[in-house]
Design a protein that fits this description.
Elements: H1 3-36, E1 55-61, H2 68-76, E2 85-91, H3 97-110, E3 114-118, H4 126-137, E4 142-145, H5 156-160, E5 169-178, H6 185-207, E6 219-222, H7 223-228, H8 239-249, E7 253-264, H9 270-297, H10 302-312, H11 316-326, H12 328-335, H13 340-368, H14 380-401, H15 432-456, H16 462-488
Parallel strand pairs: 1-2, 1-4, 2-3, 5-7
Antiparallel strand pairs: 4-6, 5-6
Helix pairs in contact: 1-6, 1-11, 1-12, 1-13, 2-3, 8-9, 9-10, 9-14, 11-14, 14-16, 15-16
Length: about 500
């Protein structure tokens, strides 16, 4: 390879590593804030029955027959006066879900609950469109939103609504819990990542009066906050993130309640997890394109602006990681002349700092939050991240170039840990051929530096270099497993 090209690729490689290092520094700052400061829980006034405001509970559904009845039952069981509670089932389904929602809604109507099923002629705007359509008919002054796989406790409204005693509070977000944490290594890893998102990120941002986001479910909005911010919009695929920042720019304050947990279901297949994360990555970048200029020019404190940039652009780390992976072999070729051990003294500490900071972040939170069992899968995080980086990088690129897009719902199975594992059919893995070809090509390419190091006798570098093809081998094996499972069991067993 031409020396000039190698020099350029080396510069690109270290710029990408610098981007990852900045993210690592931000993780360390987050965990330091979380460890050093005890954020007081927001005070809440006592709520008397006579003071109960009107609340509308919205349940957006799309083809989710396994969990539709469960969430309707949970919403109907909420402790709230019958004359002050309205439940809207926003059903865009075109499968068996429709019959289930109709039957369950009719059952609770007979019991005295105010439940209606709202259907549209099309899915325009996807979830954002359904929420907007329901809002036009909503009678409540407050809007609680639950996705189909969530199971709020009966006291959810009693715990959250008192925090709206202050007129400036526009949204209250509860913490997600997980019904199937120990189902597999994938669900354990997701539980660890999402628990830190709520327990650390939300806690720090809320406690330091920084902007943070409604997570699309398990939260309550003041209706006037939604309306004053421009309502639900579908020009991003993360309508919750978009509305959150618009509302806070309008002056509304958000509250995070760590002690209020709403159990939910984690994706159980790699295909579903990848699809969900691709949407989140794409939508965050779309939101950054749309709102970062407004945030940076708004009369808000500098720390708010800095944290908003860090939050909305965090998915750029997937691009940095993928670039660092692709340029690994050219950099190895270009720098072999400086001496093996001199090179390792620079590269391995840099990698350990960028990746190690993230591992330390999740380790500290996992130990302090009682998630020690999930920490056993933490070593898989850097390997899985390498294998997932190409797909999430493509999602980031789509977010840069596109507005809106298809809102792909994550399939729900209604599982509780391992009890239903054998009864769960594999879902359609999307484009398994394309995924497998992509991963095979990258696996073969990243074996090249491993073979080169073997030939050159660079033994200390080999374990480090094996992480990269290992990431794509993990994806290949898991994709093959799910593709074979789907092919052999295409008929869902309900």
């Amino acid at each position: 390879m031409h020396t000039a090209i190698l020099n350029i690729l080396t510069i690109i490689h270290f710029l990408a590593m610098a981007g990852l290092a900045v993210y690592g520094v931000h993780r360390i700052w987050m965990i330091r804030c979380w460890r050093r400061h005890v954020f007081a829980m927001p005070a809440a006034a006592d709520l008397r029955k006579d003071d109960m405001p009107r609340v509308t509970v919205q349940i957006p559904l799309y083809n989710e027959p396994r969990v539709a009845a469960r969430i309707i039952d949970a919403a109907a069981a909420l402790e709230w006066s019958d004359d002050k509670l309205e439940i809207q089932v926003l059903d865009d389904s075109d499968d068996a879900t429709c019959a289930i929602t109709d039957e369950q809604a009719a059952y609770w109507v007979q019991k005295g609950r105010n439940i209606s099923v709202v259907r549209r002629n099309n899915r325009t705007g996807y979830k954002a469109g359904a929420l907007a359509a329901g809002l036009k008919q909503a009678s409540g002054d407050f809007i609680a939103v639950f996705d189909a796989d969530f199971v709020p406790g009966p006291d959810f409204l009693m715990k959250t609504l008192p925090h709206f005693a202050e007129d400036g509070v526009g949204m209250v977000q509860a913490r997600w819990g997980f019904l199937n944490t120990h189902y597999s290594w994938l669900t354990r890893l997701q539980a660890l990542l999402l628990s830190a998102h709520f327990g650390v990120e939300h806690a720090v941002r809320c406690g330091r009066r920084l902007f943070f986001n409604f997570n699309g479910t398990a939260g309550v909005w003041r209706k006037s906050a939604i309306e004053s911010a421009g309502g639900w919009q579908s020009d991003t695929v993360t309508e919750d993130l978009d509305l959150s920042y618009r509302a806070q720019l309008t002056g509304w304050r958000f509250v995070y309640l760590h002690h209020v947990e709403v159990p939910s279901e984690l994706p159980v297949t790699l295909a579903d997890f990848r699809c969900q994360q691709e949407r989140w990555a794409k939508g965050a970048i779309q939101t950054a394109r749309k709102l970062l200029p407004r945030v940076l020019s708004a009369p808000v404190p500098v720390p708010v602006k800095v944290e908003t940039v860090a939050h909305l652009l965090a998915n750029c780390c997937w691009v940095f990681g993928f670039i660092a992976t692709l340029t690994l072999y050219p950099v190895l070729l270009n720098r072999i002349g400086i001496g093996v051990y001199q090179m390792l003294w620079i590269d391995i500490p840099l990698f350990l700092f960028t990746g190690g900071a993230v591992l330390v972040y999740y380790s500290i939170h996992g130990v302090k939050s009682g998630l020690k069992r999930s920490l056993f899968v933490l070593p898989l995080l850097p390997v899985a991240s390498i294998g997932l980086a190409p797909f999430f990088s493509m999602a980031v690129l789509k977010g840069v170039l596109q507005k809106g897009g298809v809102f792909a719902r994550t399939p729900k199975f209604g599982v509780l840990e391992k009890t239903g594992r054998k009864m769960i059919p594999f879902t359609n893995p999307g484009k398994p051929g394309l995924n497998l070809v992509t991963n095979f090509i990258l696996f073969a390419y990243l074996m090249t530096p491993v073979v080169f190091s073997l030939n050159q006798g660079i033994w200390p570098a080999i374990p480090f270099l094996c992480l990269f093809p290992g990431g794509f081998l993990l994806m290949i094996l898991w994709d093959l497993r799910e593709y074979v499972g789907w092919h052999m069991n295409k008929t869902p067993r309900l």
